[in-house]
Design brief:
CATH class of the largest domain: Mainly Alpha
Number of strands: 0
Number of domains: 2
Largest sheet: none
Shape: flat
CATH superfamily of the largest domain: UbiA prenyltransferase
Helix content: over 70%
CATH topology of the largest domain: Tetracycline Repressor, domain 2
Distance between the termini: 51 Å
Radius of gyration: 19 Å
Length: 295
C-alpha cells in the first residue's frame, strides 16, 4: 500500500489527531460502555475514580482502534467522498505517526484497564481492538460482503466491557447487550451503504449492495431488524430491566422495523437515509431507557 504524496508538508494539529480517534463513533462506544456499567449489579458501590478510569479506557481504546483503521485504510479513504477529508489522505498526519499513535494508545488503554479496574474488562477491550483491526479492517472489509456482519462484533463489545469493569465477569445479561448492538450493526451500516453505494464501488469495497444488489440487501436488513425486536426486550425478560423498559424497547424496535419496510418498498435512497438516522437514535434511546429504568 503506497503512501499518499502531497505537494507541501502540513503540520498536524491537535484537532487532526483527535479526528483520528473517530470521535463520533467514540461517543456511541462510550455511551453504550457506560450503560453496561450502569445496569451492572453493584455499580453504585464502584468507586467514582475507578468508574471514570474504565470509561476513559473504553474511549481511548476505541479511538486507538479507529486511528489504526485510518492508517490501514488511507488509500481507500482518499477515494471515497465521505472520508477523503480525513487527516491522513489530506497529508496532515503522517501514516507512520498515525499507526504509532494508535498502537500506543491501545496498549495504554488495555494496561490501564487491567491494572486500575480488572483484567477481565482489559481482556475484552484488548480482544475488541484486535478484532476490529485484524479481523474486520485487514481481513474482512475488502474481501467479503459479510464484513459488517462479522466485523460488527468489535463495536458490540463496549457494554460487555462496561459490565465486566463493574462485576469482573461475563454473564447472559451482558451477552444480550452485546447481541443487541451486534444485530443492530448490519441494518445500520447497510442503510448507509445503500445511499453511499457509489463511494464503495469507487473504492472497490464489497459492501452487500455492491455485490448482491439493493433488493437482496434490503431483505437481509429486514431479517436483522426482525431479530432486534425480541433481543431488545430481552433485558426485561432476563430481569435486568422493568416492564416500562420492555414496552419502550418493543415500540422502538417495531418502529425500526417499520423504517426497514419503508426502505424495502422505496426505490429512492430517501428512506435509507431516514432509516440510517433513526438507527443511531434507536441505539441511543434503547440504552438510555435501560439506564433510566435503573434509577
Amino acid at each position: 500500500m503506497s503512501d499518499l504524496a502531497i505537494s507541501e508538508p502540513v503540520e498536524a494539529s491537535v484537532k487532526d489527531y483527535f479526528t483520528l480517534l473517530k470521535p463520533k463513533v467514540m461517543s456511541l462506544v462510550v455511551f453504550t460502555g457506560f450503560a453496561g456499567m450502569w445496569v451492572a449489579p453493584n455499580f453504585s458501590s464502584m468507586h467514582p475514580v475507578i468508574a471514570a478510569t474504565a470509561i476513559l479506557c473504553i474511549a481511548v481504546g476505541a479511538g486507538a482502534a479507529g486511528a489504526i483503521n485510518m492508517w490501514y485504510d488511507r488509500d481507500i479513504d482518499a477515494i471515497m467522498k465521505r472520508t477523503k477529508n480525513r487527516p491522513i489522505p489530506l497529508g496532515r498526519v503522517d501514516p507512520d505517526e498515525a499507526l504509532s499513535f494508535g498502537v500506543i494508545l491501545s496498549l495504554f488503554s488495555i494496561m490501564t484497564m487491567g491494572v486500575a479496574v480488572n483484567w477481565t474488562a482489559a481482556a475484552l477491550l484488548g480482544f475488541a481492538n484486535l478484532f476490529y483491526v485484524f479481523v474486520y479492517t485487514m481481513w474482512l472489509k475488502r474481501r467479503t460482503p459479510q464484513n459488517i456482519v462479522i466485523g460488527g462484533a468489535a463495536g458490540a463489545f463496549p457494554p460487555m466491557i462496561g459490565w465486566a469493569a463493574v462485576t469482573g465477569d461475563i454473564t447472559s445479561a451482558s451477552i444480550v447487550l452485546f447481541c443487541i448492538i451486534f444485530f443492530w450493526t448490519p441494518p445500520h451500516f447497510w442503510a448507509l451503504s445503500l445511499f453511499a453505494n457509489e463511494d464503495y464501488k469507487r473504492a472497490n469495497i464489497p459492501m452487500l449492495p455492491v455485490v448482491a444488489g439493493e433488493r437482496a440487501t434490503k431483505i437481509q436488513m429486514l431479517f436483522y431488524s426482525l431479530l432486534l425486536v425480541p433481543l431488545s426486550v430481552a433485558p426485561y425478560t432476563l430481569g435486568i430491566a422493568g416492564l416500562g423498559y420492555g414496552i419502550f424497547a418493543f415500540a422502538l424496535s417495531v418502529f425500526f422495523l417499520f423504517t426497514n419496510f419503508r426502505v424495502l418498498v422505496d426505490k429512492t435512497d430517501k428512506s435509507a437515509r431516514l432509516m440510517f438516522g433513526y438507527s443511531v437514535f434507536y441505539l441511543f434511546a434503547l440504552f438510555a431507557a435501560l439506564m433510566i429504568d435503573k434509577i
